[in-house]
């Protein structure tokens, strides 16, 4: 019986043992990663350069894009490299890093999505007080608090997960070092980590309830707006956000609450894709293609790029 620290390498589960499918998987993941990279970098660039987007909503959106960019970068590039080389391994430090940064970024994202719902609630339900409540200082504090909560949660999960005794071969039945699969290697139940996971799920559920309450107030206010254009604009900024939150949280709840199967399947890998890869890839599309301000900023940037220099 040894602790995780005595393990020098973990073996990750691939999507297939067939070489052709491994190459196809690597190509698909690489295309998805490049799309996520392009989309999130574009949002960060637009919200930084265009003065019209220097508002709380886009300040938080820029933070969200940075989180998504980092979140997908800690899992997909390693998976692509493993598929191309046909060596599904990861070092002990690499596994620790994946666990730490995954919880840092995922927890921060949940907190930031909650803050974004509060921002939309103030903007739509209390527009006259918006600039006072959502001042630059307040926005920075909210973003910093989100990062602090993510850091604390990441430290607790990483410390409790890698302090347990393990039995058998270090085979992680996932394409990255995910905590439920790591806990399945333990010789006995790790009460501390189970408590930490329970607290995380309770806080995530609390964030989801807060977001739902915010949107109940938002939609009730929006439906009273006499202007059809005003209602459409409000829904266009709120519905995508609610979609992102629901997809991200419910796929995570499903992965962490259900019992692990004795024999892993492709379905288990597919579920993990919905909370590690899909949100970072879809967020830029949801927030840019359905947002008039973002589309105008993009057109302006392209126009400036094509303008001949004197």
TrEMBL record:
InterPro entries: GPCR_Rhodpsn (IPR000276), GPCR_Rhodpsn_7TM (IPR017452), Olfact_rcpt (IPR000725), Olfactory_GPCR (IPR050516). PROSITE patterns: G_PROTEIN_RECEP_F1_1, G_PROTEIN_RECEP_F1_2. Keywords: Cell membrane, G-protein coupled receptor, Membrane, Olfaction, Receptor, Sensory transduction, Transducer, Transmembrane, Transmembrane helix. Residues 39-287 form the G-protein coupled receptors family 1 profile domain. It comes from the Eukaryota. It is found in: Cell membrane. PANTHER family: OLFACTORY RECEPTOR. This is Olfactory receptor. It comes from Echinops telfairi. The gene is LOC101646622.
């Amino acid at each position: 019986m040894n602790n995780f620290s005595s393990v020098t390498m973990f073996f990750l589960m691939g999507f297939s043992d067939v070489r052709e499918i491994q190459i196809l998987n690597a190509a698909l993941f690489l295309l998805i990663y490049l799309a996520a990279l392009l989309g999130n970098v574009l949002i960060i660039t637009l919200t930084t350069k265009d003065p019209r987007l220097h508002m709380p909503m886009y300040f938080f959106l820029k933070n969200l894009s940075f989180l998504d960019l980092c979140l997908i970068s800690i899992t997909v590039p390693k998976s692509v490299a493993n598929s191309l080389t046909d060596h599904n391994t990861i070092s002990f430090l690499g596994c620790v890093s994946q666990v730490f940064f995954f919880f840092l970024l995922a927890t921060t994202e949940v907190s930031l999505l909650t803050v974004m719902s509060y921002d939309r609630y103030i903007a739509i339900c209390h527009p006259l007080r918006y600039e006072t409540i959502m001042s630059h200082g307040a926005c920075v504090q909210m973003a910093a608090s989100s990062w602090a909560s993510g850091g604390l949660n990441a430290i607790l999960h990483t410390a409790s997960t890698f302090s347990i005794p393990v039995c058998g071969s270090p085979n992680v039945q996932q394409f990255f070092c995910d905590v439920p699969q790591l806990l399945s290697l333990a010789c006995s139940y790790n009460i501390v980590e189970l408590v930490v996971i329970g607290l995380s799920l309770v806080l995530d559920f609390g964030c989801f309830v807060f977001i739902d309450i915010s949107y109940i107030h938002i939609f009730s206010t929006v439906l009273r707006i006499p202007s059809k254009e005003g209602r459409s604009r409000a829904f266009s900024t709120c519905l995508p956000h609610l979609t992102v939150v629901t997809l991200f949280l419910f796929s995570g709840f499903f992965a962490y609450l259900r019992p692990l199967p004795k024999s892993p399947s492709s379905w288990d890998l597919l579920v993990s894709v919905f909370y590690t890869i899909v949100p970072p890839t879809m967020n830029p599309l949801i927030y840019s293609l359905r947002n008039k301000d973002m589309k105008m900023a993009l057109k302006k940037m392209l126009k400036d790029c094509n303008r001949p220099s004197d």
